[in-house]
Amino acid sequence: MTFVDSHFFAFLPVFILLWWLTRNRYELRVGVMLWSSLIFYGYRHWWFVPIILAYALVDWGAGLLIERSTRKKLFLTLGIGFNLAALSFWKYSPLLMKTTSELFGWPSSMSAYALSDGWIIPMGISFYAFIGIAYMVDVYRGTITAERDLWRYALFASFFPHLVAGPILRAKEFLWHLGPDALPNRPLAAWEGTFLIARGFFKKLVLADGIAVAIDPFFSNIADASTAGVWSAPYVYLYALQIYLDFSGYTDIGRGLGLWFGFRWPENFNWPYLATSAQDFWRRWHMTLSRFLRDYLYIPLGGNRHGLARAILATMITMLLGGIWHGASWSFMIWGGLHGAFLVINRLWAMTSLQARLARLTGPSGAIWHVVCIALTFNAVCLAWCFFRLTDLSESLECVRRAFVFDADKMLVGGSGDLSLWMMLAAYGLASAAAAIATRGAPLSDVGQMLDKEHFVRGAAWGGSLSLLVVAWALAPDAQSVPFIYFQF
Questions:
Q1: How far apart are CA 399 and CA 393, in angstroms?
Q2: Residue 38 has pLDDT above 70, yes or no
Q3: Is the pLDDT of residue 183 over 60?
Q4: How far apart, in whole angstroms, are the C-alpha atoms of residue 471 and residue 465?
Q5: Are residues 53 and 123 in contact, defined by beta-carbon separation less than 8 angstroms?
Q6: Cis peptide leading into 187, omega within 30 of 0?
Q7: Beta-carbon neighbour count of residue 16 at 10 Å?
Q8: Is residue 208 over pLDDT 60?
Q9: Between 112 and 339, where is the model more confident?
Q10: Separation between Cα atoms, residue 288 and residue 269, nearest integer Å
């Protein structure tokens, strides 16, 4: 089941009712939250449920053994090994079958099945694997205590608002709030949650899906004669907006639902395309993944503690592994490698005297340099998106080539020439900028608190949020035909 599945809108009211009826019965409420989440997850593929429960059982048991045993490193290694082995099996078996079939002449039916729709990767498997790895490492480091209750841990790993595509939560952000004395029994910030849900649906159904309708035919036929000479740059820019709006829209809905049920989870995006450097981009994009890679991969590899060469090596390894995590394809590894190279160049550039002088510029010259930095960073990120969107390496390279070599008569044709789409995106961008200026960039949680002081403004805010939700569904092209992009990871 997904947030845009028609069945979800029958599931959610039933869950809310059961959640409210069990508000004074702790064991029943935990049971309702857990089993409802498992129904949500296994609705279309029931065999997903044993997989996530196996993860929960192993990670929970490993946490207890790590805390109680004198052989902590052994049980940490076994726990992480299980997570990575199971993850690798589901995500990389198709590539392995194809490769072995080609190298050794094994029956082609093996690779054909693995690369067909018959091989289904459990939705969100990377996200709950990462949650488990972070949990076990934190227990090993002594920053948290191991959870004693298996069902509480299973709920931590599988609660449906964050289950399929994050954010990647840590024990302090969610598990600690599931105890008998901490489990919420009312919404934490009802208006903020409602606004996030409405904004998320608008981003997904209207903007991201609208972009998908416009650009998917081009990317599906980029190697065909039908798209010869077509300029790829505007399509890549639109894809950059699509993946941001699609993924951040999912996160908005998940975080909004979390607030409805009393949990505040970390933000995952912070205006990433206004980043002024590669390092700044990864502070703003998929922030819970960025901190996971930093804390559980980059720093253990040495981080900044052992000189420049070691830091560069740790950066490249981290980003290459972050790339291959997205899928078994050379193009994903190139995407990660490009971002690793961007981060290395960023680090070396930051060490120069010229960068220091430019950073001190003020007034118009400082503003111009700031805009130049944003433009350079955005275009570098879009270059890498070519390898993310097109997992066939030859198609990715063709997309890059067409950004620089094209027919002048085909600069803006097809979906990239849809003026109404660009106008809608521009209107949303201006509205978002105006809201940020009006609130002076205050976090949404602070805005919610300010609304409580003015009854009229609070009523207008509620009306605006509900209207945005209605508009999202009224303008949606076809929610069922465009799955969330990050569900495949």
A1: 10
A2: yes
A3: yes
A4: 10
A5: no
A6: no
A7: 13
A8: yes
A9: 339
A10: 9
Range 28-42 average pLDDT:
95
Per-chain mean pLDDT for the chain: 89
Q: Residue 347: count other Cβ atoms within 10 Å of its Cβ.
A: 17
* Cβ partners under 8 Å of residue 406, min gap 6: 229, 230, 231, 232
**pLDDT in the model for residue 330:** 81
Amino acid at 461: A
Catalytic residue among 162, 286, 326, 339: 326
Active site residue 326: yes
Burial class of residue 134 (count of CB atoms within 10 Å of its CB; 0-12, 13-18, 19+): buried
Residue boundaries of the structural domains of the chain: 8-185, 188-232+239-269+418-489, 289-404
Q: What is the pLDDT of residue 91?
A: 82
**Residues of the chain above pLDDT 70, percent:** 94
Per the listing, tokens 């028609």 go with: 6
Rounded Cα distance between 53 and 55, Å, is 5
**pLDDT tens-place string over residues 114-169:** 555 567 788 888 888 999 999 999 999 999 999 999 999 999 999 999 988 879 99
CA max distance for the chain: 73
Distance, CA of 23 to CA of 443 (rounded, Å): 29
Give the Cα separation of 338 and 322 in Å (integer). Answer: 11
pTM for this prediction: 0.91
pLDDT at position 397: 93
3-state SS string over the chain?
CCCCCCCHHHHHHHHHHHHHHCCCCHHHHHHHHHHHHHHHHCCCCCCHHHHHHHHHHHHHHHHHHHHHCCCHHHHHHHHHHHHHHHHHHHHHHHHHHHHHHHHHCCCHHHHHHHCCCCCCCCCCHHHHHHHHHHHHHHHHHCCCCCCCCHHHHHHHHHCHHHHCCCCCCCHHHCHHHHCCCCCCCCCCCHHHHHHHHHHHHHHHHHHHHHHHHHHHHHHHCCCCHHHCCCCCHHHHHHHHHHHHHHHHHHHHHHHHHHHHCCCCCCCCCCCHHHCCCHHHHHHHCCHHHHHHHHHHHHCCCCCCCCCHHHHHHHHHHHHHHHHHHCCCCHHHHHHHHHHHHHHHHHHHHHCCHHHHHHHCCCHHHHHHHHHHHHHHHHHHHHHHHHHHHCCCHHHHHHHHHHHHCCCHHHCCCHHHHCHHHHHHHHHHHHHHHHHHHHCCCCCHHHHHHHHCCCHHHHHHHHHHHHHHHHHHHHHCCCHHHCCCHHHHC
